[in-house]
Amino acid sequence: MRCPVTEQITDTSPTPWGRKRKAVQKASDAQSDNRHFPCSNCGADLRYHPGEQKMICTHCGAKQDVPHVDDAAAQVEHSYLDFLKNDSQMAEIEVQSLNCNTCGASVEFNPDEHSRLCPFCDSAIVADVSTQRKIVPQGLLPFSVMEKQAHDHMKTWLVARWFAPNGFESQAAKEHFSGIYVPIWTYDSATTTHYVGERGTTTGTGKNRRTRWRSVSGTVQRGFDDVLVSGTKSVSAEFKDALGPWPLRDLETYQTEFLAGLRAENHTIGLEDGFYNAQSFMRVVITGDIRRDIGGQRQRIHSSQTRFDNQTFKHLLLPVWITHYSLGKNRYRLNVNGRTGKVYGQRPFSKLKLLGASFVMTLAAMGIGLLLSLASGG
Questions:
Q1: Does any domain span residue 56?
Q2: How far apart are CA 54 and CA 46, in angstroms?
């Protein structure tokens, strides 16, 4: 059952989604998210270059700055309740996309691409390219880590895996990375929680150990800022959090120039479902607050009621380098934060190394046991 929200607030800040922008939305309905930017020198395509944060021609090497816009719009918090109350519609554009039946990803497709492998699960996509509507995000974190740097971060991470098979990092180094922007919701909320529970104080030891319980009640408050929730089913919470933290202070207002030569995934989790997931995370944190407020050696929570106030949200894109590598018959996915270089991935284990480590630990335990026995005169 979804938790009720209680306070409605008015947000008068400009929004790229509300009814005030219907004219813009209608204009965008007639166009697709065109990411072809011709070079002024030779006419070839310009592509976004993370290393210089410029657009560079793939043919003659000419460089062009990404047009500067007001980046304050990327940081604007939008009223969640006002959006629902006014039945606002998010601005959308039409994009060519492929849907993966294995992991549920909906990935934008460039007609120049020949590969139809899903960048998230590495499965072959057999569906036809279709025109789909995509929510226009308000901001993004542009890639600043280049693909070569992603390879370097990957190698460092792989070499540090002690129980991985020997030489597997050289196999992984041959693979190509895909630069993907993944959709994210962020939510803010002030919370007030009233609870009823018990505080336990333990006395005695062994069979005489007893816990005395005392009924308690109280109120805890906490504010949440930028709780990140995946906007797609193909990106798990573990995936998102393992690559964090994300420097959201560096957000840029959404511009298609930042996506030239890269790919983006369409959102498959809506605003309300995203907030429900955010509430689940908040409740886990609030439970810890309640236990600390109860105090004592043990705690019981019988009931709690949380009020969520001043709810706001943002819709963003985050940069990720994704690759897959083979080892034997298995394929493994590895991800690199396109902004910080942090690595998270699936790791293989060597059975021989694990067996050897187990044998060494057994010998060490036997040696310690022998020394203790000798020291005690046994």
A1: no
A2: 9
